[in-house]
Automatic annotation (TrEMBL):
This is SAM-dependent methlyltransferase. Residues 54-124 form the O-methyltransferase dimerisation domain. The lineage of its organism: Bacteria, Pseudomonadati, Pseudomonadota, Alphaproteobacteria, Rhodobacterales. Residues 145-357 form the O-methyltransferase C-terminal domain. GO terms for molecular function: O-methyltransferase activity; protein dimerization activity.
Length: 384
């Protein structure tokens, strides 16, 4: 196979500015040797080196973490520390191999090793067990990992990805009509939605809202959290018919059930339930391409009264300042799903503006890897 040339295609003129000249200097192997030896640059060189190594080994860390989750090591340690020998048998591997895994977990600070050589949970490991849906998320990464096997082919659009089959609803309601498929994705989403709901409600207040419509609301975790926080709020969850059974079961078990309702339908083909003074789109837009999002935002605008509020909450790109969660993980995840795309708050804001919304505000996220929130308002029409 011929290697692609490093020189730019004909007609592309590169400007070699000061920064590029500096980076060319840093790229020289001799410079790295010099920087490592020179007292003023030594610590920066060492830090850069460590960070580079961390980037290089990232996939090994993820896979070691996957093994810890898949073998339920964290759960097995909930009652106290165990030796590698004690864990080896139930996990059907030699004590030596188990020790290798446990040492990796210790190095990643998920586990800790005591003086007697027993392994127990470290704070991060215990937190992993407590974060709803995190272990399921890690397990379902097996499919994502296979999709990433040839990242260049993935970027070129040459991979028939597994994730596109895992989340079939994004291609339209017809693809998610069976309850088994619906349960699989909604369970995973519902568990992780608890922390998304918490961060969303921490960022924006729904005080003063009488009726919330949560479009693509899944099992209604956000709607329920909103209703529990605001005792006067009624909420309607609007999602595909395939989600109805599980969503209704969940809503019925809530102490706020009298104020929660599920309406089945597709935002592509059906009218939205009316009467809401606020509409939320939680982790909905990034699943869809621009034309679908533009049509949805237009529909949301029409369904709201003057002064009505839109709340968008989902992981976002850093925009002009790319950041790790949005521009690496979620960006490639959307790529593997083959439909949607992760967008920056500025881009979503511009799409809201195109739909007619004003007062667009994005909120500094506590945890960009969980969600970022943006709100917009349907302007009051001027009298007369
Ligand atoms: C990524 S999940 C998010 C669910 C929930 N809001 C959350 O954050 O956990 C996207 C949701 O949008 C729903 N959805 C997808 N296409 C839809 C459509 N055309 N009409 C209504 N809901 C749809 C899916 O069924 C799913 O529940």
């Amino acid at each position: 196979m011929a290697l692609a040339s490093d020189t730019p295609p004909a007609g592309v003129r590169q400007r070699i500015g000061l920064h590029t000249r500096l980076m060319r200097l840093v790229a020289r192997p001799g410079f790295q040797r010099w920087a490592a030896a020179f007292p003023f640059t030594r610590s920066t060189a060492a830090k850069d080196g460590a960070e580079l190594f961390d980037l290089v080994q990232g996939f090994v860390k993820s896979q070691a973490l996957f093994a810890l989750v898949d073998l339920r090591i964290l759960h097995r340690l909930m009652d106290g520390p165990l030796t590698s020998g004690e864990l080896a048998g139930p996990c059907r591997m030699s004590a030596d191999r188990m020790d290798r895994l446990l040492r990796a977990g210790t190095a990643m600070r998920v586990l800790r090793r005591d003086r007697k050589g027993r392994y127990g949970l470290a704070r991060k490991g215990a937190a992993m067990v407590g974060v709803p849906g995190l272990e399921d998320m890690i397990r379902h990464h097996a499919a994502f990992y296979r999709d990433l096997n040839d990242p260049v082919a993935l970027l070129r659009g040459e991979v028939d990805t597994e994730l596109s089959a895992f989340w079939p609803y994004v291609f339209g309601a017809d693809n998610a009509t069976d309850a088994e498929t619906s349960s699989r994705y909604s369970d995973l989403m519902a568990r992780s939605q608890e922390i998304v709901a918490a961060d969303t409600l921490a960022a924006v207040s729904l005080a003063g809202i009488d009726r919330l419509l949560d479009i693509g609301g899944g099992y209604g975790v956000f709607a329920e959290a909103a209703a529990l926080k605001h005792p006067d709020l009624n909420a309607v969850v609007f999602d595909l018919p395939a989600v109805r059974r599980n969503a209704e079961a969940r809503l019925q078990s809530s102490t706020a059930r009298d104020r929660l309702r599920f309406v089945a339908g597709s935002f592509r083909d059906d009218a939205l339930p009316d009467g809401a003074d606020a509409i939320s789109l939680i982790r909905v837009l990034y699943d869809h391409q621009d034309s679908t999002v533009a049509a949805l935002l237009g529909k949301v605008f029409d369904a709201l009264p003057d002064g009505g509020r839109l709340i968008v909450s989902e992981p976002m790109s850093g925009g002009d300042r790319p950041e790790i969660a949005g521009d690496v993980y979620f960006s490639f995840y959307c790529l593997a799903m083959q439909t949607g795309t992760v967008r920056s708050a500025a881009r979503i804001g511009a799409m809201c503006e195109n739909a007619g919304f004003t007062d667009i505000r994005s909120y500094k996220s506590r945890r960009p890897y969980v969600t970022t929130v943006l709100t917009a308002v349907k302007p009051q029409t001027k009298p007369g």
